[in-house]
Amino acid sequence: MQKLLLSIVALVALVAGIGIYNWLPQEQPQALVYEPARTIAPFTLDGSDGQLADNSNLEGQWTLLFTGYTFCPDICPTTMADLRKILPELQEHSVVPVKVWMISVDPQRDDVDRIQKYTSFFGENFYGVRAEHQRLYPFVNGLGLMYSIPDEGEQDYLVNHSAAIILVNPAGNLQAIFKAEHVIGEIPTVSMEQLAQDFEIIARRYH
């Protein structure tokens, strides 16, 4: 009788504990998280390794995607350097690799060789992709990003592009968007501290 009573008390305590846990507010990421994750339309891009990159190259890893170009004077090198610093911390929260893809939005000047040299400077977990606008624009637009196209024949120009970072899950689907912070007088960049906090939550919940 005493053992039965103890079992009942333990069961009640367990149920109460679960109820309290579910009642308490759960930590929520600041990023825009897609639930369920969104399918990325089929694409084919030129990879910095000299191979074609398609949807299958995003599978089996967490991938951070962002638009940029090698002539970019501020946002791109800043973002690349920040991601290089934060990658080891992100990797601690994932059993699969965490990679970075820079999507070049300057096909006129960024050929495969130039992108390879640029991305390899930041480490082996960095990969570059490019394509002519006919293939590039639908891919970038499908991710919810944008970029400007220079006038025909223009040589010395800047490319306006999104500063947000896209997170693709190990199934190759769009999982979240980390938006850039806009501060007057400063270039728009994603907070790496917030990105790391959000990634930990997202990776923990991912199945």
Q: Which of globular, elongated, flat, extended, rod-shaped describes the shape?
A: globular
Structural class: alpha+beta
| Major β-sheet strand ordering | 1-8-7-4-5-6-2-3
What is the CATH-assigned architecture? Answer: 3-Layer(aba) Sandwich
N-to-C span: 42 Å
**How much is the radius of gyration in Å?**
21 Å
The percentage of residues in β strands lies in 15-25%
Give the full name of the CATH homologous superfamily.
Answer: Glutaredoxin
How many separate helices?
5
State the order of secondary-structure elements, H for helix, E for strand.
HEEEEHEHEHEEH
Mean pLDDT score: 89
User: Care to count the β-strands?
Assistant: 8
Largest sheet: 8 strands, mixed
Number of domains: 1
Helix content: 25-40%
CATH topology: Glutaredoxin
- Given as residue ranges, the uncertain stretches (5+ residues, pLDDT < 50) are 9-22
So what's the CATH class? Alpha Beta
